[in-house]
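B., you asked whether I could sanity-check this one before it goes into the benchmark set. Here's the sequence:
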Amino acid sequence: MPGGPRGGFRPAFRRWRAGRPFWGGLLLALGGAEILLTLRASLDVVLHVGMQGLAGYLLPVVMLLCGVLVLANPAQRLFYSVVGVLVSLGSWMTSNLGGFFVGLLLGVVGSCLTFGWLPDQEPRVGRRRRRKEARAARAAATGRIPAQRA
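And here's what the prediction gave me:
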């Protein structure tokens, strides 16, 4: 039984994803990867140019690492998100305007999502479910049976 008693990969992945700031970590890692992909210079040229060229590779690697660490260790999400947003903003000066602003924006949004994530927050209830519960509560208060809607 690969998926355990509840079976399947999807339910196991959903349980894993619910316990961590998944979208924030993913966006932060994607921002770092995008900036790395926009850099075209070979490592020999970067080492010849000096520290400024090396920082162009170092900051996106730190962004990518912070995104992966957020997913692996959500208990330290606040530290990783602060480092991630600072490195994302620093990539604007060192890495082709932060990967032509795409990687910069992905990193900042991902860091903000990670910073704002709360582990013990209840999942949001959908609008349809809230309306259905409100209709049932009104019907119970008046003693009528609610009409079924399609």
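One thing to flag: The longest helix spans residues 51-72. Otherwise nothing jumped out at me.
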